[in-house]
Amino acid sequence: MENLVLLGMFLLAAIALGLIYLLASFFSLWLQALFSKASVSIFQLLGMRLRKVNPRMIVEARILSVKAGIPVETNLLEAHYLSGGNVLRVVQAVIAANKANINLSFEESAAIDLAGRNVLEAVQMSVNPKVITTPRISGVALDGIQLQAITRITVRTSIRKLVGGAGEETVIARVGEGIVSSIGSAKTHKEVLENPNMISKKVLASGLDAGTAFEILSIDIADVDVGNNIGAILETDRAEADKKIAQAKAEERRAMAAAAEQEMKARVVEMQAKVVEAEAQVPLAMAEALRGGNLGVMDYYNLQNIKADTQMRKQISGVPEDKGNK
Predict the structure, then answer these.
(1) Per-residue pLDDT tens for 249-284?
(2) How far is Cα 188 from Cα 186, in angstroms, rounded to an integer?
(3) Is domain 130-232 annotated with CATH 3.40.50.720?
(4) How far apart are the C-alpha atoms of 82 and 107, rounded to whole Å?
């Protein structure tokens, strides 16, 4: 019985020592919150430890909000911490928005933070607009001259469109598209060089910030340079392509003509062969006529005389002798 009593006393002493240790570890935080008029009870600190919440961070955020005149309940701070949010940054964003007369509650700020946005940077950008410098953007005027422009976009954050709104990359892409369109609609590149403001006015009037987390305040042309004569390059390339096409067609016609020439030569040889064959049949036909009585001997001699007379006349007149009549 005495052993049981001693064991119970030992357990009570151990529990008491554990409680004293926990209370001692929270005493400095409790005292800090107490003197800062941001009271947090010992039991609340103990509950934070049991819920695996960082008590120091919660107390610091609580003190910061109270000192700024915007007290935030510890339950809200703990809930945001457990959700994986940045408690101090959210409180700082709420304080900065309050000082800048921007209507932003802790719940809205926490939602923006959980959405992956830097809410403190967004509030700061709402007060102090940011200047975004675009890369060099090329466009071609109607006269074929290329122009390269660099612009500076002044934007500020739109808190209400921060969640779900597009980022800086979208703004830069839209502005670049607007610059290319503005340069492309100019009749000559000289118009753009004389009045670069025409680009910024047209781009700004296009409402490029729709659906983004920013509000475009101004678009300023920082630099405009003259590039290549794209129209001349395209015409040269087109002429070269037309030349190659014409050469290919001419080569095709030459090949066809050569093939036709060879075919005609073959036909001439074929016709000559037929003539020789036909001439070879004449003596046979005459012999057959003599045998059949259709041609007399005198008729044959008269025919030979006519041939000889014709040959003599050709020789006298200088006409070349027909090879077929030899």
Answers:
(1) 998 888 998 888 888 988 888 888 888 888 788 777
(2) 6
(3) no
(4) 14
